[in-house]
Amino acid sequence: MPTESKVDVLVLGAGPAGLMCAQGLKRAGVNVRIIDKRPKKVAAGQADGVQPRTIEVLQSYGLAERLLREGNQMHMVAFYNPSPNGGIERTGRTADITAPSARYPFEVTLHQGAIEAIFLDSMRELGLEVDRPIIPTALELSHDENELRDPQSYPVKVTLKHLDFGSEGQDDTEIVYAKFVVGADGAHSWVRKTLGIIMDGEQTDYIWGVVDLIPSTNFPDIRNRCAIHSSNGSCMIIPREGDKVRLYIQLSDKDVVVDKATGRVDKEKTKVGPEELLEVARKSFSPFTIEKAGEIDWWTIYLIGQRVAQKFSVHERVFIAGDACHTHSPKAGQGMNASMNDTHNLIWKMTYVLRGWADISLLRTYEFERRKYAQDLIAFDKKFSALFSGKPRTEECQDGVSHEAFLEAFQTFGAFSCGIGIHYSPSSIPSMPNITELKHQSLTSHQTVGMRILPHVFVRAADARPFEIQDLLPANTKWKLVVFVGDIGPGKIKQIERVAKLADDLGKSTGLLKRYEDGVFEILTICATVKECLNYTDLPEVLRPHWSR
Amino acid sequence: MPTESKVDVLVLGAGPAGLMCAQGLKRAGVNVRIIDKRPKKVAAGQADGVQPRTIEVLQSYGLAERLLREGNQMHMVAFYNPSPNGGIERTGRTADITAPSARYPFEVTLHQGAIEAIFLDSMRELGLEVDRPIIPTALELSHDENELRDPQSYPVKVTLKHLDFGSEGQDDTEIVYAKFVVGADGAHSWVRKTLGIIMDGEQTDYIWGVVDLIPSTNFPDIRNRCAIHSSNGSCMIIPREGDKVRLYIQLSDKDVVVDKATGRVDKEKTKVGPEELLEVARKSFSPFTIEKAGEIDWWTIYLIGQRVAQKFSVHERVFIAGDACHTHSPKAGQGMNASMNDTHNLIWKMTYVLRGWADISLLRTYEFERRKYAQDLIAFDKKFSALFSGKPRTEECQDGVSHEAFLEAFQTFGAFSCGIGIHYSPSSIPSMPNITELKHQSLTSHQTVGMRILPHVFVRAADARPFEIQDLLPANTKWKLVVFVGDIGPGKIKQIERVAKLADDLGKSTGLLKRYEDGVFEILTICATVKECLNYTDLPEVLRPHWSR
């Protein structure tokens, strides 16, 4: 008999989406288990770019410090185009991140294995390890509507197979009953296929090679992100941790054999290896030289596929996230970021539903918000990939992509591609009927409802210490009540009276705070009074549960 | 027979001075041993204020991050004086740190045990533990002049006694032969007494009590540093980590019995305990209330002694550091800072002498620089203590200390007391004859020779990433060669030529760099060119040994 167990959330796949999900749920006190088919974590290559908004999200879990310590930072982007003298020349440099409100105005590059290690180590501190190597072999979802509606039921039955069990008659299968399942099992997602979810979209004709290496070069922008448009093909440079650099190299059909049936690169028949990729890059770099100093770290060849899943969940009990529900080109550096932000969106919602703080229907907003985002991402990726893979404009090729057109696209997409621009549409969250109205945009002139809170440094009233507001509102699965009380300094009698009335309303037995259990809300009060004139003790106590708030 | 061993440096005492010394030497690869008589590190109380300059120094060893994470920050200071209505009232608030160039414009408070833990943990990572409980029982210094002049000799013989050895005939004594000994063994230093070094200075009449507690209070500045001058005595508030607060409370002669012979507080006969101290504080706080919430963490009573040792070393083979060579009042928060900075001064000098990079006479500059500083500190402390311990000015007491006089003193001493103002006088360092002239102040308009390098953010040429220059010049016991090359952007032909000539001179076989072994110098080149126009590859290679420099 296989062993049987119950778990609140079973996460399938320990890539960035799955790890983000598991660490966040564990941190929130949820009974969570995470499995992966690989015996070990990724060691090199794969995705590596962390966008400004993702850094903010990692910071909200206390994970950005290590990322910033270990990673490389990209602050500048340089553009190279065909020179009238042959070869390439620099046509411009600009800030890599142009979104004005980015708290971290740069991208961080670090190989996926190191990013996964940040999650794995923080999970280990919380007492959670990835179970591996394990694959799911069957998934059954209850059809009982009452069961599906009850967040405390276990409507998902998953059969697991342990890959490392010996052959001595040991039973390698196991049954897990879960309240929720998250399929974060990659572009070839078993969960998605098992659920019969269709991917919309297509394969493009763009073929790219990727090489990670330590270069020896006289190219002056080797430590900047570079978009090289040469008459010999395009190339993108992504500087990495240490002295490493990643090159994205455009390939032509004749270099690569594509399997017509699968649409994938046929690695058997394709005679292109890392040396050949570097040789193609060298032609783009001319008149600059580039050689490898030491071994090539990692390489691959891929076709750009741009697809979004039709559904992101079944009955809000089984979800798919990350590459399992959207794939796009890696050059815009979006894949891993979108994946981590998918499950960041899911963590608090699942936690609230499991705690009984929110109705299970809250979980519908996951697909509503993240699928729309994935579609926007594909639309962005299509434009960007076409511009980047297209021929550069030269005297001979007047309808090619000009530097100006590319730069304009780069800057137009800036806010979106750095993640800062994510804007969720109004969606009624029916679980907390008295605070559902998220549409009160008229009440706030600078903060857009549906976007992340704007980073801003405030000075704490009690001790004049500056704090970034994002750090005072961490991803700790509590509702945040931020009260802007205006100027309550000496002489502001009217405003002081208004604040006192608000405090009375909030604190009375029928008030917002008393209607929910302790610990549901974290209160933060923000005053517009200059620090020298404000006594934190002047505020009503309900608005300052502790001197630090 | 006692065991015998040799060590390059033996550090006696594992307080802040000794720990700073040991971790710095270990980091530099020096064969160092550190012993302490206490079986365990300090758990609470003691010194707790870390000044802005000391934070910079800790950062230069990579130790500031944890201090900043664990410690409390003081950004504002509030002044209270007698109110015409009785009790006290606030007469002003100002920034706690007014020195304009402080990289960290605040003080950090954290109990001494936690500060020591930062050193202990970083030493452990480097493979060094404190040997304890051990006391020195004899110290002999060779009289042989040749031996004393030879940095590779072992002229100091120290006998140690292990306090935790059983009585079963085990030999609890041990002989250590050291090249150098550092006595960081506190105000009652055994090393100082053994060497017969006299302390200059005197005991004052000011008696103070100290209490660490978590308060329950309606005092609006409880989380700010406060100087309270009341008609019932003075009180200083130092907020601490968590919700803790330290109160310094002025006591009168009648509260405390002083032992005439030793000049110390007679704890036996003195009937003052923590409750009595709090009762005295309550009178100063009126009309505000203050009670303890929970137990009192730590308390003490002390007389202010202001003394400096006549000598800081004997033959530059045995040194004293920290409280062993200077004592002053704790309220200005200088003691621990001065102690750590004493040995910070000694670390690189000892290391260079041991490596043969500098003549042994370099060590004379330790006393020259640090004793002068200790004397300045006492002069400062005398003025500050007198102002703070004096009666406040009131209608009845017209010759008391006014708020204006105290504030002026506070701000005048600001640069000095935060450590930023430390300015070492020219002292020929004879060991590196070609770069001894430290007096070229005329060549640098903003950087004062003899002061720490001014913090400033520079943008790295290769990747446009901003860096604090202090972080590019860490305390890693290497000479730093910082070359300011001016603007070498497009068209600056003359300056480019000058830089090329300098590079040729530096790099040739008789040039500065080739005359010393590899690794003696770390080169950092600073350009005044705007980042968009500079290619790091345009600099001569000798000025950019790596793209990151």
UniProtKB/TrEMBL annotation, chains A, B:
Every Phenol hydroxylase-like C-terminal dimerisation domain range: 422-546
Gene3D superfamilies: 3.40.30.20, D-Amino Acid Oxidase, subunit A, domain 2, FAD/NAD(P)-binding domain
SUPFAM superfamilies, alphabetized: FAD-linked reductases, C-terminal domain (SSF54373), FAD/NAD(P)-binding domain (SSF51905), Thioredoxin-like (SSF52833)
Pfam families: FAD_binding_3 (PF01494), Phe_hydrox_dim (PF07976)
Keyword list, A-Z: FAD, Flavoprotein, Oxidoreductase
Keyword Oxidoreductase on entry: yes
Domain FAD-binding: 6-380
Assigned protein family: Belongs to the PheA/TfdB FAD monooxygenase family.
Protein name per UniProt: Uncharacterized protein
Native organism: Somion occarium
